Records
---
Amino acid sequence: MANTILVGAQWGDEGKGKIIDVLTEQADVVVRTQGGNNAGHTVFIGKQKYVLHLIPSGILRKKKICVIGNGVVVDPVGLVSEMEGLRKLNIKLSGNLFVSETAHVVFPYHRELDAQREVLKGKNKIGTTKRGIGPAYGDKAARVGLRVIDLINEERFAEKLAIKIKENNEVLKAFGAKPLSFKEVHSTYRKAGDYLRPFVTNTVTLLHQAIRRGDDILFEGAQGTFLDIDHGTYPYVTSSNTTSGGACTGSGVAPNRMDRVVGVLKAYTTRVGEGPLPTENAEIADMLHAMGREFGATTGRARRCGWFDSVATRHATMVNGIDDLAITNIDGLDTVETIKVCIGYRDGKKKYDYMPNDVEVLSRCVPVYAEFPGWLTPTDKARSWKDLPPKARSYLKAISELTDAKLFIASIGPGRDQTIFV
Ligand code: GDP
Ligand code: IMO
Ligand code: MG
């Protein structure tokens, strides 16, 4: 399979977890390189549902090496609880899971600051997952963060944490929030640090040993292209590089070691949280929600829904260098009579065939639609390209042409067997 970067090509929740699980069959190593437990990656194996937040979805297949890379921000308490959950389901972790010693640590003050800043923003809030992601990456950039390597060094940890708690309590007090107890945070984090110590290593050298062995590595993106801190709809974004470049900096594997980029996208569009979503449509949202679909895997919030936006996905192909497309949730459109696809934007007299950078402009943009006849047939039982209704095949071909990348996978259900290699 070679070294493959998998990214979300929309606003997150494209079905990356499912596709990672499918592609892991051919991979040796799976790596998370950015984000934190703001991610929620769903995998169904038979009737068993797994939701992964920090641990690569590859962990569900036996004998695969899974790595939490240096670019991830790790909430150690969250990670321990995720590990415990997997162990209860008989998933083996020792010898399979490795955590970077240089990944930054998320603390309770990050989560509290995340929440307080949202309150302060009022109607301009981002709609974050309140997992402390922004403040943790903020500390990393400001060079005042603590890393996993500090967490597992008892003496150094106590010393550094004391300073951090003191400083952040002043900030929390200014917000009118409750200060944190050093003793409590210290004891919880020390416990988590002890639990994690055997898994912590230099993941950069580990990955390069794997490359020298000829292993195939799959880089599991979190979030999506338009939540990227540089390329997304700033400030309505997350705080990491969710685009393909993030896989290099977040793992220590150089661009010339990468072979291919797979973009995962839904056959329609969803977004959770605030910020512009040009093709948002209440009818399609009501339809999907009534089917019990499109509720967030991390926060349970109802996702905003809209038509497929090819202006956005074409931009995603450009910034990520997407070679192949995995289009998911095709079955979500099974009952739609006329399917719309956005092929351009209009802001008054001005037309755009690309995404404007100014979110105010993007918020004003009205989509220009092309229409496709719906197939009005259930697709979830299809197992080959030929099983799909001709109108569904035409739709998929059209959106992959508009997105400017090759159709590789068509997904017609959450299960492993509901995956068609095109
Ligand atoms: P991720 O964050 O990109 O991994 O995506 P999420 O897991 O947050 O959300 C995707 C949702 O779609 C999950 O509930 C998946 O089980 C589900 N899913 C993925 N592919 C398909 C598909 O082709 N059809 C259907 N019906 N569900 C899918
Ligand atoms: P996966 O990996 C969808 C969104 C939040 C919010 C914005 C900033 O499952 O696709 P943050 O907590 O990161 O500071 O929130 O980003 N967001 C996601 N939306 N899927 C995700 O991850 C997301 N991770 C963050 O809803 O709008
Ligand atoms: Mg998700």
Note: The chain has a mean pLDDT of 97.
---
Amino acid sequence: MTASPPITPEVLPIPRKPPEAARLNLVGLTRPQLRAALVAAGTPEAQAKMRENQLWQWIYHKGVRSFDAMTNLAKDYRALLAGHFTIELPEMVARTVSADGTRKYLVRIAGGHEVEVVYIPEDGRGTLCISSQVGCTLTCTFCHTGTQRLVRNLTAAEIVGQIMLARDDLGEWPAQGRAPKDETRLISNLVLMGMGEPLYNFDAVRDAMKIAMDNEGISLSRRRITLSTSGIVPEIARAGTEIGCMLAVSLHATTDELRNQLVPINRKYPLTQLLDALRAYPKLSNSERITFEYVMLKGVNDSDADARRLVRLIAGIPAKINLIPFNEWPGAPYQRSAWERIEAFADIVHKAGYASPIRTPRGEDIMAACGQLKSATERARKSRFEIAAEAGLPQPERVVRRPDAPDLH
Ligand code: SAH
Ligand code: SF4
């Protein structure tokens, strides 16, 4: 333990309620967990592997939610399954569609907490951005999610469930008799870039991603799944060996001094440690580059000198730099860099040999863009004053509210 102040001083963890139903939810179980559950419920050992595959196909290939519909299983066996198990997803409580086609889903999980999921259609692909936690224990000063105080880890079922709910909404389940390979995949890519720090919920994220990658699961290639982390150094190697998906790292600053302010976990895992862990990332090669995310904050991290320092810092790492124009949210203590500034920055990075795409903000009109996510029902938000104080910025002017003014949050 060090004597430095805690990085996440004011988080109120939400206790997980014990499951009410006696029946076990099959969604989100790993293969060994499912097999063990089937055997415990009376499936003969010799059949368990076959039953496991059949159930996965019904649940993840076909989107079936009732044991009765599983027509290649004997009636008695279906009844046995229904007596012991459920197939349950979180509840989709709202759906908003942006003028640009982006869809934002509000998803309610056990206990009444909510997370957001965003679907971004683009030419030739569709990306689903999923959440790993309600809120986030980290307090990056430019991120709306980081202002939410209540935090709870999602279960593997709740993480896979987000993908399944989006497939429901998009009508993506294959028609009867069609093989998964013949499907139109509206969701072709998956990014863990919604609410939460995925590496602080490692086991559930790993189990959910294994289901997403499995050929009998959601069947997405591991190269089409990207996990974004703020830099939880001890878990980075594990992400490579135990999940094996693509990695994105929220860098955002090129000196420890600035990164300590923007991404406070940097005080625990500073830049040299982070970059060493990335150089050792098991999957790293020219064909599997690391994505560095870099949010463009006006006058804060967007100078030519920052761009040059960035390319020196990551020298030797096969990488792509994703420049994210800052997305504003109510009370945010930063502004988006001017477009010409972002382009000048991108140019320096590009000339140094790195792809440097500028991420077009999507779904801003529905607050679905990066860093804008936060449960609408979440009331315990930090004030503008607390945010400014954490960012080391001057205090905003206080606005005196009329006693009859409506409460906007
Ligand atoms: N917790 C993980 C993943 C979720 S955030 C992480 O931090 O990497 C997904 C990306 O959006 C991160 O790169 C994050 O830094 C960025 N982001 C957060 N707030 C933002 C904002 N207001 N504007 C633009 N990007 C933002
Ligand atoms: Fe958490 Fe990522 Fe937001 Fe930082 S940027 S507060 S790690 S969700």
Note: Residues 241 and 397 are 49 Å apart (CA to CA).
---
Amino acid sequence: MPIVSTKEILDRAFADKYGVAAFNILDDLTIDAVLAAAEEERAPVILQTSVKTVRAYGRDRLISVFRAMAQDTTVPVAVHLDHCPYRDVITECLDAGWNSVLFDAHELDVADNLAQTVEVVAEAGKHGAAVEGEIEGIEGKEDDIGSDEASKLQSLETAVDFIRKTGVDVFAPAIGNAHGQYKSAPKLDHQRVTDLVEATNTPMALHGGTGLSDDQFRDLIARGCAKVNISTAIKEAYMRSGLEHLKEAEEKNKWDPPTLFAHQRAAVVSTAREHIALFGGSGKAW
Ligand code: 13P
């Protein structure tokens, strides 16, 4: 199956009221594991990369590995650039072949953010790529981008105006969600999602997925959160399974890297499958 546009993946999910898991991948092992999970669930999936991962792994290397692995996949997949405030990185990733980008200009005032997002939408359009927009910071840093402080909230009218005037394909509202593990059970503004969807008929992106309850996911997806971001759960599955294996390796004084990688891959596949199934994506591949 060729790589599919993020817009097509999200529009179908939005119309059918299921969520597409957007997993933050880090390297070839996590790309392979997430693709395997989507394949096993027969689900469309979005792989997303932070700016940190793009820089650490290397942009061209990352897209080449993604393409090489995705070409054997039989479910729809897309690659998305997560929270990116840098216009040059957006341009480079669009040129390299990313299917969508989150232009995260929430630190600018809304008028400036809006004007620049219009430009990013036009630029992405030339590549057939989609754009996610954001006007309020999601609490908690995601791979060094963002802030641990809650950001200023904007009015519903401001958010609706931003979505309409920019023509973004998906919008990321701040509804009390946060990146990383929640310190206490989050209270989310579900109504905000309904209000935005009713006013704009645009899919929403649910950030800060790790740690939300099954009911929160189901309700928010039913209201129009067609893209559901999961990063911390993937990182933890990857690293905790590695730690577990390494402790055992040390105890037995037996060091076999392929066994370590297989153990980590299995943990990431299992975490990704659980989320895909929970979001209703299983069996939705076309
Ligand atoms: P979590 O790390 O809380 O899963 O959030 C992921 C996210 O929203 C990426 O943008």
Note: Residues 24, 82-83, 142, 179-180, 207-210, 229-233 surround 1,3-dihydroxyacetonephosphate (CB under 6 Å).
